[in-house]
Amino acid sequence: MFDKLRDMLAGVDADYADVRHEQMSETKIAFARKELTGLSASSTDGYVVRVLKNGGFSSVAFTSPDDATRAAATAAENAELIGRTIEKPVRLADTEVVKDEVRPELDEDPRKIAVDEKLELLRGYNDIPLENEKVATTAMGYADLVRNKWFLSTEGSEVYEELITVRVRGNITTKDGDLTQSVRVAFGGSDGFARLRGRDELVHERTGIAVDLLKAEPVTAGTYNAVLNYQLAGVFTHEAFGHFSEADLIEDSPTMRERMQIGAELGNTVLSIKDDPTVPHQLGHYRYDDEGVAARPTQLMKDGVLVGRLHSRRTAASFDEPLSGHCVAEDYRYAPIIRMGSIFIEPGERSLDDLLGQLGDGLYLINHMGGQTTGENFTFGAQYGFVVKGGKKERMVRDINISGNLYHTLKSIVAVGKDLTLNETGGCGKGQVNHRSCFGAPHVLVRDVVIGGK
Amino acid sequence: MERLLDIARKKAGKVEVYGEKSTSDDVSFENSKLKDIESSIQSGVGLLLMQDGKVGYAYTRNLVDREGLVQNALDALKGGAEADYDLPLTKDVPELDTYDGSIEKLSTTGMVEECNRVCGVFAGKTSGQLNTSAGSMTTEVRVLNSAGTDLNTKSSSYYAYAALNFPGSYSSIFRMVTGKGFTPLSDEDTSYVLNAYEAAQKEVKVPSGKMKVLFLPSTMYTLVWRLLAATGGKNVYEKVSPLKDKVGEKVMSERLTVVDTPLDDAWPGARAFDDEGTACRETPIVEAGILKGFYFDRYYAWKAGVEPTGHGFRPGVTSRVSPGLEHLTIEPGKESFAELLKAMDKGIIVGGVLGAHSGNLLNGDFSVGLAPGLYVEGGEIAGQVKDAMVAGNIYDTMQRVVGIENRVHPGYMGRFPAVLLEDVSFASKG
Prior knowledge:
The complex is a heterodimer.
Chain A: H1 2-10, E1 16-32, E2 35-53, E3 56-62, H2 68-85, E4 99-102, H3 115-130, E5 135-153, E6 158-176, E7 179-189, H4 200-213, E8 217-218, E9 222-228, H5 230-241, H6 247-250, H7 254-259, E10 273-275, E11 298-302, E12 305-306, H8 313-319, E13 327-328, E14 337-338, E15 342-345, H9 352-359, E16 362-373, E17 377-389, E18 392-398, E19 400-405, H10 406-412, E20 413-416, E21 421-422, E22 428-429, E23 433-434, E24 438-441, E25 444-452
Parallel strand pairs in A: 4-6, 8-18, 9-16, 15-24
Antiparallel strand pairs in A: 1-2, 1-5, 2-3, 5-6, 6-7, 9-25, 10-11, 10-15, 11-12, 13-14, 16-17, 17-18, 17-19, 19-25, 20-25, 21-24, 22-23
Chain B: H1 2-9, E1 14-30, E2 33-51, E3 54-60, H2 66-78, E4 81-82, H3 108-122, E5 129-145, E6 150-165, E7 172-179, H4 187-199, E8 209-215, H5 221-231, H6 233-237, E9 258-260, E10 283-287, E11 290-291, H7 298-304, E12 312-313, E13 322-323, E14 328-330, H8 337-344, E15 347-350, E16 353-354, E17 365-370, E18 373-377, E19 380-385, E20 388-393, H9 394-397, E21 401-404, E22 409-411, E23 414-416, E24 419-428
Parallel strand pairs in B: 8-15
Antiparallel strand pairs in B: 1-2, 1-5, 2-3, 3-4, 5-6, 6-7, 8-24, 9-10, 9-14, 10-11, 12-13, 15-18, 16-17, 17-20, 18-19, 20-24, 21-24, 22-23
C-alpha cells in the first residue's frame, strides 16, 4: 500500500505533501420496537491528499484512485492560490519522521464475531425496555467500525494504524397520554467487543428512569447551585472549554486568542483539565494522529490556569507551542482538523455525599442530552435531575436545559469529586464527526447556573 | 450500474441500485483573511435487495467488485430485517431546471475574489471580526430498480455567507445566500449584517418573563425541527408522535403554512423523484394552521399501510433511506422585517441558538440559549442580552403569531421568513 501512495505523490511539485488512505468497514444493526429494521455490513475506502506549496496549504478528498493525479494537482493549485493571497505563509511544525504499525489490544475482536451473535446481543438489550408496559417504543442500534489507515508523507513518515470502535446506542421512549419521555442508553469503546457484554443492569436502570420521568415535574426556570454528574461535567468540559483549546478554532480570532492566552487564570483553583489519548482501554485512545504525529498527554488547565492547548502541525507552528498530536479526521472523506482525544477534569478528593452536603439546597443533574457553545456562552440539556434540600435528594425533575457563560462557570466550579468516569460513546460534531471523542469528569459542584425550564 | 442490477436480479426478487457522484469546492476566510480551500471528489453506489419478505443493503465507494457488493447485500438480507414493499416504476417525471452550467466555470480563484470583495465591503466599517465563506457543489444521483425505473438528475448549488463575530465569541450576526449558480451577497445582505451588529453592541439586562420573540429565518429551524419529528413517517407509524391522530385539526396559528416544495426549481436542490425513485410532489404539512398530513418513505409507508409520499432520502450511500423533508418552506406573510420590529416594539430577536437539538423534540418542547439574543425597544435593535434562553412548546408557541416576514431566506432545514411570536417564556440572569 505504501508503494501505491508513494506513486500518488511522486508527480506533485510541492514543499510538502501527504496522503492518507483509509479502508473502512462497518456493521450496523438496528431495532425499532420489536422489529429489526436494518442490518448491513459494508466496506469502503478513500483518500485525502494535502499539499503545502509556496506558503499555502490545501487538501482534496477523493474516492477513486483514478482521480489521484487530478486531486493532487488541484490541491497544489489551491495551495498556490492561498500562498499568493495570504500575508503570513503557512508553516508546519517539525515532527519526527515515523515508520510504525499499530494494532489495538482487543478483548474480543468484533471482526471475528458472527453477525448473528451481534444481532442476538442487541435483541436482548432491546427486549429489556419492551417488557415494560409504559415503554412506547425503542430505537436500539449496534455499530462496529473498523478503520485501517495508511499515512505517508514526503518527509518519509509511513504510519499504519487500526482503529476499532464498537457501540450499542439507543433511545427508550415512554408514553402516558400525550406525554412522551425519551432516555438515551449508550455503551461501547475501542478495546474490543467484550465491553458490550453483560450490560443488562444499565439498560434496566435507564428503562426505570424513562418510566419515572413520566411522573417527574418540569423544572422551574431560574438560577440554581447544582451538582453535575460525570457526563454533564464532562460535556461541559468538552463543549465549553475543550473546543476553545483547539487551536484551529481560535487561530484567526484575535479576541479569542487574547482570552485563551497561556497563563490566563480562567478557572477556579480546584480545576485541572487534561486531554490524554495515550491511555489505553478508553474510547478516545490512538497512537498517531492523521498527520503522523504521536499523540501525547496534554495538560490544558492546572489549578485554574490555562497551561496548554491542542495542536495540528500548522497551528503549533503558528502559535509557537509544542505539538500535541490532535489533528484527526472523521474518515477518508475529510482532511484532518484539531479534535479532542480524551478530555477530562482531573479528580479531587470529595465524595458525592460531601458535594451534596456542601450544595445544601439546589439541583443534582444527571446525564447529558447534547450541548453547544459559542465560545462565550453554552447550552446543554440534562437528561433528568433531583431537587436537593438540605443535602438530600428529593423529587425528580425533567425538561432541564442549562445555559451559562463559559468563563463565569469555570470560576463557579467550586468543588470537584474523586470519582472520575469517562464516557463510552462519542459523536462530537465540528463539521465532521468524531466517533471516538471521549470526555469525562468526577462529580462537580457549580454555583449559579441558569436553568431554562419549559 | 446496469450490470450490477443484472447480477443482483439473479439473486433477489426486488433490486434497487442508487448511485451518487459529487464534487465540491469550499473557500473560507477568517478575520477577513483567506484561511482554507478544501475540495472533494466523491462517488458511491448503494444496493438494496428484497427477497422472501426480507431486506438487505450494502454500499461501496468504488464499483469494481460487483459480485462482492451483491454478496454483502445478501449477507445483510440473511440477518432478517423485514420488508416487502413494492419498488416503484416511475417514468415521465417533470423536467426540472436544477443545473446551472456556469458553476463549472466558477473556480476557487473566483470564490476567493468574491470573498475578498465582501471583505472590502466591510473594511473600515466595523470593529467586528468578519468570517466569510463561499462554496460550490455539483451532484448527480441515479436510481435504477428491478421494476424498470431508471431516473437520474444533476444539480448544482452555491452558497456564500458573511458573519460578524462578537468579540471573544463565535456568536455572530450573519446572512447566507444560496443559488444554483454564483449568487453574490447583496448590499442589502451586507448592510443588514453591519447595522444589526453595530446596534447590538450594548449589553442590556432584561428580566425574565413572557415577551414577544422574533425568530430569524436562520433560527426558525429550532421550531421546525420539532414539527418535522412529529410528522415524519417513522414516529407516526410507531405512534409516538403527539400529532398522530390530529390530521385535519388546528395545531398552530392559521397564519402559518408549512409546505414541502420539491418541484420548485427556483432554488437549489429541487427533485422530481426521491432516492427510492418515487415521484416527488408538493406536500403541505400544515396549511393555515391545520395539520394536513405526514411524510413517508417506502418502508414506513408500507409499515403504516399508507401510500409513500416521495420523501425517501438518504444523506449519502453509507446510510439507508429514511423519511425526510428536503425542500421545506414556510409561506411568507405581509410584513417587512422593519415592520415586524415595529410590531414587536419591545422584545427579543433570536439571532442564533444553542442547544436546538436537545430537549424533548418529539413532544415539541424547546429550550435554547440565545447566541446572540438581540434586544428590541421602540421597534429598533437596542442591544444584546447575554446568558439568556427562550423556551416553550411549539404547539403552544406557534399558536401566537403576531407577524410573518414578507420574504423567505435560506436557513437550516429549509427556507423561512422571520416569524414574530408573543408570550414566549424568556429566562435570563438580568
